[in-house]
């Protein structure tokens, strides 16, 4: 690693802060999903769950345990299996966000149809299907080459996997985000001009726009570096590429921790529910 011990400290802090915060978020969202029966809360709960899996498999197992503690002195089968779990969690997180985007699009642009098709049982089935597809798309990455060790030019399989990675986790979802969010914004502007806008819908839309914008910004560096690694120079042959990948990974993983603070900033209902969860925990915790 080109930046010394800093990534280990950074990932440890990110895990130490992000994991408890995401668990708290999951508990609060599960209460809201059960109480309100709204599909948007189920999608946010699924997003939080996938963020927790990302923190466990990528940050803890991949970066802290495998790289820092074990110094990559582990069987290759273990590394490849972890690759599958990492990419599965990554794909689930991103494509659940796509589901949330489509849910808000249908709710705003096709409200009558939304009332007919949006109910908890159907939403949970869709989420389960996305996690199953995420696992299926993660399996090919068992053969993902270690960019930190591989000094040879990328093979044909390596090129296919890296382009598949970039398209699956960035180019395709970002295209959906940009197209859908543009339609939502135009629809809201027309509603506001005609006096038909609703504040709670605007808050939900603001939350969606913030989540997708943060993702687009934080994952852009990793995508760019990955393409440069394919066509410019390998990580092992150029310290600048190694440094760029270190920083890009750290920036991308920040995305797994920010949503809690975003929800608190936008939603009073979420803040109130978090308060209820914390007060209930304090009441039931043993006193000295």
Structure characterization notes:
By secondary structure, the protein is mainly alpha-helical. It has one domain: Rhodopsin 7-helix transmembrane proteins (Rhopdopsin 7-helix transmembrane proteins, Up-down Bundle), CATH 1.20.1070.10. Helices cover 81% and strands 0% of the residues. The protein has ten helices and no strands. The chain is globular. The model has no long low-confidence stretch (mean pLDDT 87).
Spell out the blueprint of helices and strands:
Layout: H1 6-36, H2 39-69, H3 76-109, H4 111-117, H5 120-138, H6 156-194, H7 199-231, H8 239-253, H9 259-266, H10 268-284
InterPro entries: GPCR_Rhodpsn, GPCR_Rhodpsn_7TM, Orphan_GPCR1
Main location: membrane
Transmembrane segments: 6-29, 41-74, 126-145, 167-186, 207-232, 247-266
Strand element count: 0
By CATH's scheme, which homologous superfamily applies? Rhodopsin 7-helix transmembrane proteins
The first-to-last residue Cα distance is 45 Å
Mind describing the biggest β-sheet? none
| Helix count, DSSP H or I runs of 4 or more residues | 10
**Element pattern in H and E:** HHHHHHHHHH
Membrane topology: Multi-pass membrane protein
Subcellular location: Cell membrane
Main location: membrane
Protein name: Putative G-protein coupled receptor 142
Descriptive keywords:
mainly alpha; Rhopdopsin 7-helix transmembrane proteins; 10 helices; G-protein coupled receptor; cell membrane
């Amino acid at each position: 690693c080109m930046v010394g011990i800093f990534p280990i400290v950074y990932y440890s802090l990110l895990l130490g802060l992000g994991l408890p915060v995401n668990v708290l978020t999951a508990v609060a969202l599960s209460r809201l999903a059960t109480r309100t029966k709204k599909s948007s809360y189920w999608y946010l709960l699924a997003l939080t769950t996938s963020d927790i899996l990302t923190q466990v498999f990528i940050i803890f197992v991949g970066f802290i345990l495998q790289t820092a503690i074990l110094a990559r002195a582990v069987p290759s089968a273990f590394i490849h299996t972890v690759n599958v779990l990492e990419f599965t969690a990554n794909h689930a997180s991103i494509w659940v966000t796509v589901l949330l985007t489509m849910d808000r699009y249908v709710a705003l642009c096709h409200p009558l149809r939304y009332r007919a098709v949006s109910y908890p049982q159907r939403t949970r089935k869709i989420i389960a299907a996305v996690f199953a597809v995420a696992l299926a798309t993660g399996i090919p990455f068992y053969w993902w080459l270690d960019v930190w060790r591989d000094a040879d030019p990328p093979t044909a399989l390596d090129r296919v996997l890296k382009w598949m990675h970039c398209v699956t986790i960035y180019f395709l979802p970002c295209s959906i985000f940009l197209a859908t969010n543009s339609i939502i914004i135009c629809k809201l502007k027309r509603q506001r001009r005609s006096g038909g806008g609703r504040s709670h819908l605007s808050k939900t839309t603001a939350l969606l726009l913030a989540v997708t914008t943060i993702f687009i910004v934080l994952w852009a560096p990793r995508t760019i570096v990955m393409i440069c690694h394919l066509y410019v120079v390998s990580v092992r042959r150029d310290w600048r590429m190694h440094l760029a990948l270190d920083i890009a990974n750290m920036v991308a993983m920040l995305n797994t921790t920010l949503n809690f603070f975003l929800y608190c900033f936008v939603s009073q209902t979420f803040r109130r529910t978090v308060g209820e969860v914390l007060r209930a925990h304090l009441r039931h915790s043993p006193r000295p």
